[in-house]
Design goal:
Shape: globular
Structural class: alpha/beta
Strand order of the largest sheet: 3-2-1-4-5-6-7
Order of helices and strands: EHEEHEHEHHEHEHEHEHEHEHEHEHHH
Oligomer: single chain
Distance between the termini: 19 Å
Largest sheet: 7 strands, parallel
Number of helices: 15
Number of strands: 13
C-alpha cells in the first residue's frame, strides 16, 4: 500500500476505510450480512477495511474487527432497542476515536444512524469524509419495534434527531430506492448526496448447483423433514416484526384447506416461544424450527426449500434475505412493499401488506403449480446475477469514496 496521510491531495489507489458498526457484529442476520459483504467486496478490490463494533459477536478471520471493551455490568446482555444500548454506544465512541487515530482512515463509513453519528465525531476530528450506510428510518424502526410511541411526545424529538443525523454525512448509501425517496422527500436531503446501493447476493456461494445432495439428506434426516411434502422456507430473525406469527397462521389456514406442505423456519431468537405457538395452534407437526443457522451454512439449508417466504411488513427497511432466496433459484411469496418489488420485480408472488389470506393464496398458487415454481425461481436467480452483484456494488462504493476524496483534496 502506498504511503498516504490524511490531508494529502492525491487520492491513493488503495484506501483505508474505517466502518463503524453499532451492533454485535458478526451475527447471522439482516444488516450484518450487508456489512460483511460490503467489507469483502472492498477488500477484493484491494482496499483495507477495519470494523469497529461492540464486544459481542463472532470474529471472522478474513475481516479486521476491532471491538469495544466489555461492559462492567451485565456482560451477557443482548443488544437491542433499549436504554442499555446507550452504554454500548458510549463505549463505541471511545473505541472509534482510538482506532481512528491508529488506523488513519481515508474514509469513515457509518452503518445505521448511531454509526453515522459516532463516525461524524471522528470524521470531523480527522477531517475526512463521512459516508452513511442507510438501511431504514430510525424512528420508523423504533416505532415498529414498539420502542417508541408514534403518537407520544418524544416521537417528534427523535424524528428531529434523525433528520439532523441524516444531514451529517457527505454521502448516503441507501439500501433501496424507497429509502432514497424517503430521505429526499421527507428529510429534504439533496439528491446529489444520495446513492442507491441495494443489498446484493453472493451468487457463487448461493448457487443450487453447488449443493451436495448427501449433505442435504443429512439435514433432512436431522430435522426429520417430510420427503413427500413441499418445503416452505424462511431464514431470518424470529420476531413478530419479521412476520413469524403470520407464518404460523398461514400454516393453520393451509391445514384447514387440506393442502399439504411443511414450514422450515430457520433463525433465532425466541425459538421455543414460536415453536410452542405452533403447537398451541395445532400445526406443530407441520413446522420445523431449526434455531440459529450460521451464514456459511445458509445456502445448504435454503436449498431444502421449494418456496421461500418474506412476511416482513416494513415499507422502508431493506430485506436482504430475498437476494439469497433469489440466488438459490427459489420462488418467493412476499408482502407487497416497494422494497420487495425492487428486488423481486415481476417474478415475485405478492400479497397485500399484512393480508394473511392473500399470503396463503400466493402459497397455494405455487404449491399447486410445480412448473410455475421452477420458472419463477430460475428467473429470480438470473435477476440476482445480473442486477444484484456485490462486485458491482463494491465498485459503486469505491466510486463514491473517490469522488468525495477528490472534492475534499
Amino acid at each position: 500500500m502506498p504511503a498516504y496521510d490524511v490531508g494529502e491531495t492525491a487520492v491513493p489507489r488503495s484506501l483505508r476505510v474505517l466502518m463503524v458498526a453499532p451492533t454485535s457484529f458478526f451475527s447471522d442476520y439482516g444488516g450484518h450480512i450487508r456489512i460483511l459483504e460490503e467489507s469483502r467486496a472492498l477488500q477484493n478490490l484491494g482496499h483495507r477495511v477495519a470494523i469497529v463494533t461492540y464486544y459481542k459477536g463472532s470474529d471472522l478471520p478474513e475481516l479486521d474487527i476491532r471491538r469495544t471493551p466489555r461492559l462492567p455490568y451485565r456482560p451477557e446482555y443482548e443488544v437491542g432497542s433499549s436504554r442499555h444500548k446507550i452504554a454500548f454506544d458510549v463505549y463505541l465512541v471511545g473505541q472509534t476515536v482510538r482506532e481512528g487515530l491508529r488506523f488513519r482512515p481515508h474514509i469513515i463509513h457509518g452503518h445505521m444512524h448511531e454509526g453515522a453519528l459516532i463516525g461524524s465525531v471522528l470524521a470531523r476530528l480527522l477531517r475526512v469524509p463521512l459516508v452513511f450506510d442507510f438501511q431504514g428510518s430510525m424512528t420508523a424502526e423504533m416505532r415498529d419495534h414498539n420502542f417508541l410511541d408514534g403518537e407520544g411526545r418524544l416521537f417528534p424529538w427523535v424524528l428531529r434527531l434523525e433528520g439532523w443525523i441524516n444531514r451529517l454525512p457527505q454521502a448516503i448509501l441507501t439500501s433501496s430506492g424507497k429509502a432514497l425517496r424517503l430521505l429526499r422527500d421527507e428529510f429534504d436531503i439533496p439528491e446529489p448526496k444520495l446513492f442507491p446501493l441495494p443489498d446484493c447476493a453472493d451468487t457463487v456461494r448461493f448457487d443450487p448447483a453447488q449443493i451436495d445432495p448427501q449433505e442435504q439428506e443429512q439435514i433432512r434426516a436431522r430435522f426429520q423433514l417430510p420427503a413427500d411434502r413441499p418445503i416452505i422456507a424462511y431464514l431470518g430473525l424470529l420476531t413478530d416484526y419479521q412476520g413469524v406469527p403470520h407464518l404460523i397462521e398461514a400454516a393453520v389456514r393451509l391445514q384447514e384447506k387440506g393442502i399439504h406442505a411443511h414450514f422450515l423456519v430457520m433463525g433465532y431468537p425466541q425459538v421455543a416461544y414460536y415453536r410452542q405457538q405452533a403447537v398451541d395452534r395445532g400445526v406443530g407437526g407441520m413446522m420445523t424450527f431449526t434455531g440459529k443457522v450460521e451464514y456459511r451454512y445458509a445456502p445448504l439449508y435454503l436449498s431444502l426449500g421449494d418456496i421461500a417466504v418474506a412476511p416482513k411488513m416494513s415499507t422502508t427497511e431493506g430485506s436482504g434475505k430475498l437476494l439469497n432466496y433469489m440466488a438459490m433459484a427459489q420462488p418467493v411469496v412476499a408482502y407487497d412493499s416497494p422494497v420487495h418489488r425492487e428486488y423481486l420485480g415481476e417474478d415475485g408472488v405478492y400479497a397485500p401488506l399484512g393480508d394473511i389470506d392473500g399470503f396463503v393464496d400466493g402459497l397455494c398458487r405455487l404449491l399447486q403449480q410445480p412448473e410455475e415454481r421452477r420458472r419463477r425461481g430460475e428467473r429470480l436467480r438470473e435477476r440476482a446475477m445480473s442486477a444484484f452483484s456485490w462486485q458491482r456494488a463494491g465498485e459503486r462504493i469505491v466510486a463514491v469514496y473517490r469522488n468525495l476524496l477528490t472534492e475534499n483534496s
